[in-house]
């Protein structure tokens, strides 16, 4: 289907890819693996046509279509989630616009006997037929199913894309690619912004996908569950294994052992031949044999063994000072942003030496609770406190915002290092693969993996007894993750890890706190114990139940309210207008309540009033504001009731 032919990629005097060739066949599930910087992302860009190779070419079957998800994307604002995802069907949307126009013309015109009216009816019939042939009537259902699978809720469909974080916007882009159903899907780190449930859904989707898939991922479980072929990019070359990732690791070890044995045998033969030539070169009686051996040696095709990339992190966390028995405790903890309650009445206790994981869907409050614990956020109600002599090392998910991009790697560490450990800065940076001139790189030019390693290196410069790590493995390659995992296993302090990487958590944590539906529930045991106890293999069953319930509700609503396409579009417009009015109402309430809060202070301290204001005037204004807020709240309730009724009629809830 797609052929990579002798592709070279060079930058200056450095060859990133060296004459690589391989084929991508229909239904292939290829995992593209290798260390960070090996050229995997570059190869995907070349396959998609975004980047040209220095030499060589990519050829494909005529009519082949490709979809590409990059590590960083741009989603234009100004549309709802549903509208943006539906752009995957741009040709169908054009048909629907034409149908809407023609439907309006046919229903409003009265010149029924004219030729022009007949042509309008005929045109509408043709477009409607083509729309039905491409499955236009079911496309909205496909969009909804895909968005639900990727973790969106129905109420999110009418929200603007600008309201979502980068991770959720990445999901919208992924949904568009999946909905386009290209012959070949290219995915660069698709699981970085997905939670466990969404990863499981994507695994199922890609396994059943009728086209080919080439993906880069550092999630071993994801690779094993999706791929049936592994292409390794190592030091400019590729090695193709018809196997999933785990089997590839075994085959790779066997291949290298065979290469080494053949190389050593040939090397011994060459050394013996050269020894014979050197010993008998000067003897006339052996001249014929010597010349024969020389010719034989010239014809030998010298074997080479694959140069092995032996660079790897070599890290060990400093010994943890002793803390109190209770390291972190939360009581009746609630956190809300405005009217949105993230979680409520959370009670947890983490004791010395425990290694726990925070798991759950994105947006359920895992990172929020971590930030409250380290003092970055304040609780709405209740409290979270650290125990006696607890020293916290915190790895934040948003490392890009926390490090100065204009500082070098060395300066970033030198800025926090104190005492004798400053003499070991280069050694510690070397352990995290920052060697030689790498330490002089500006932070802003580092890759995602390099920034993660640098942020982790910062934790080496003080002996902490509590590590709170929020998605520490994002952008790390598999080898680096394994080394970090082993270092954390040997760490003798207490640890809280927020992660969606099942293989990373397996064997590392012995307790989990599940964030779900605004509550936090404790589970003893490891990640797979947790999944097994809940009788859902990696949470697939829960996802199916959720989608089934939502689909059943939508089907029921649709059955009761069989709306035409035009009616659905019109109702969506009405709902958006009501949502806008609700938002405006909330802003007015917030402004009025801020004024009331100021007057509360004035009434408590009458001496602060201005000379032109009497207490009675202030109080009268205070009462007016209170009355206005009551009216606005009544309007807000009515608007929300109207919205719910419209959404029920529309089939959204």
Automatic annotation (TrEMBL):
Keyword Lipid metabolism: no
Keyword Kinase belongs to the record: no
Record CDD domains: ABCF_EF-3
Alphabetically ordered keywords of this record: ATP-binding, Nucleotide-binding, Repeat
Ranges for domain ABC transporter: 2-260, 328-542
InterPro entries noted in UniProt: AAA+_ATPase (IPR003593), ABC_tran_C (IPR032524), ABC_tran_Xtn (IPR032781), ABC_transporter-like_ATP-bd (IPR003439), ABC_transporter-like_CS (IPR017871), ABCF_ATPase (IPR051309), P-loop_NTPase (IPR027417), Val-tRNA_synth_C_sf (IPR037118)
SUPFAM superfamilies in alphabetical order: P-loop containing nucleoside triphosphate hydrolases
Gene Ontology molecular-function annotations: ATP binding; ATP hydrolysis activity; DNA binding
Assigned protein family: Belongs to the ABC transporter superfamily. ABCF family. YbiT subfamily.
Name the UniProt record assigns to this protein: Probable ATP-binding protein YbiT
Species whose genome carries this gene: Williamwhitmania taraxaci
């Amino acid at each position: 289907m797609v052929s990579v032919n002798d592709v070279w990629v060079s930058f200056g005097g450095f060859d990133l890819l060296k004459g690589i060739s391989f084929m991508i066949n229909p239904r292939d599930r290829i995992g593209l693996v290798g260390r960070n910087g090996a050229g995997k992302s570059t190869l995907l860009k070349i396959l998609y046509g975004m980047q040209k190779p220095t030499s060589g070419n990519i050829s494909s079957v005529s009519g082949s279509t490709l979809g590409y998800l990059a590590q960083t994307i741009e989603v234009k604002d100004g549309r709802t989630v549903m509208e943006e995802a539906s752009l995957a069907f741009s040709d169908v949307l054009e048909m629907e616009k034409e149908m809407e126009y023609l439907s309006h013309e046919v229903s409003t015109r009265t010149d029924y006997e004219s030729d022009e009216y007949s042509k309008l009816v005929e045109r509408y019939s043709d477009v409607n037929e083509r729309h039905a042939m491409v499955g236009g009537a079911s496309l909205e259902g496909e969009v909804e199913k895909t968005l639900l699978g990727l973790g969106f809720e129905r109420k999110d469909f009418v929200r603007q894309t600008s309201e979502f974080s980068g991770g959720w916007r990445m999901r919208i882009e992924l949904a568009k690619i999946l909905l386009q159903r290209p012959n070949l899907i290219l995915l660069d780190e698709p699981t970085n912004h997905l939670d466990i449930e969404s990863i499981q859904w994507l695994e199922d989707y890609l396994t059943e996908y009728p086209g080919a898939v080439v993906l880069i991922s550092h999630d071993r479980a994801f690779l094993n569950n999706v791929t049936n072929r592994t292409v390794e990019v190592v030091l400019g070359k590729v090695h193709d294994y018809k196997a999933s990732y785990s089997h590839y690791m075994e085959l790779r070890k066997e291949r290298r052992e065979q290469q080494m044995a053949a190389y050593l045998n040939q090397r011994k033969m060459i050394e013996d031949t050269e020894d014979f030539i050197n010993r008998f070169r000067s003897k006339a009686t052996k001249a014929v044999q010597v010349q024969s051996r020389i010719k034989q040696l010239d014809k030998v095709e010298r074997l080479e063994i694959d140069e092995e990339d032996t660079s790897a992190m070599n890290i060990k966390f400093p010994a943890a000072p002793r803390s109190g028995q209770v390291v972190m405790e939360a009581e009746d903890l609630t956190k809300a942003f405005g009217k949105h309650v993230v979680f409520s009445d959370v009670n947890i206790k983490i004791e010395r030496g425990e290694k726990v994981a925070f798991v759950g869907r994105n947006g359920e409050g895992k990172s929020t609770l971590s930030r409250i614990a380290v003092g970055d956020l304040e609780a709405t109600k209740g409290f979270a406190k650290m125990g006696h002599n607890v020293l916290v090392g915190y790895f934040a998910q948003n490392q890009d915002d926390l490090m100065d991009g204009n500082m070098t790697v060395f300066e970033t560490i030198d800025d926090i290092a104190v005492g004798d450990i400053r003499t070991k800065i280069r050694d510690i940076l070397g352990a995290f693969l920052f060697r030689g001139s790498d330490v002089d790189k500006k932070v802003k030019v580092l890759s995602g993996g390099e920034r993660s390693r640098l942020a982790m290196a910062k934790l080496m410069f003080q002996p902490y007894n509590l590590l709170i790590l929020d998605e520490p493995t994002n952008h790390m390659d598999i080898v680096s993750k394994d080394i970090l995992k082993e270092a954390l296993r040997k760490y003798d302090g207490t640890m809280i890890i927020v992660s969606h990487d099942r293989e990373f958590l397996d064997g590392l944590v012995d307790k989990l706190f599940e964030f779900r539906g605004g509550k936090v529930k404790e589970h003893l045991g490891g990640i797979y114990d947790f999944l097994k106890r809940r009788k859902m293999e990696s949470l697939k069953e829960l996802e199916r139940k959720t989608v089934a319930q939502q689909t059943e509700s939508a089907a029921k609503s649709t059955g009761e309210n069989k709306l035409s396409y035009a009616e659905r579009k019109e109702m969506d417009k009405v709902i958006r207008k009501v949502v806008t009015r609700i938002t405006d109402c909330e802003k007015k309430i917030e402004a009025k309540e801020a004024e009331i809060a100021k007057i509360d202070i004035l009434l408590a301290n009458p001496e602060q009033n201005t000379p032109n204001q009497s207490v009675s005037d202030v109080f009268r204004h205070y009462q007016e504001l209170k009355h206005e807020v009551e009216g606005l709240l009544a309007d807000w309730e009515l608007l929300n009731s109207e919205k719910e009724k419209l959404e029920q009629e529309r089939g959204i809830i």
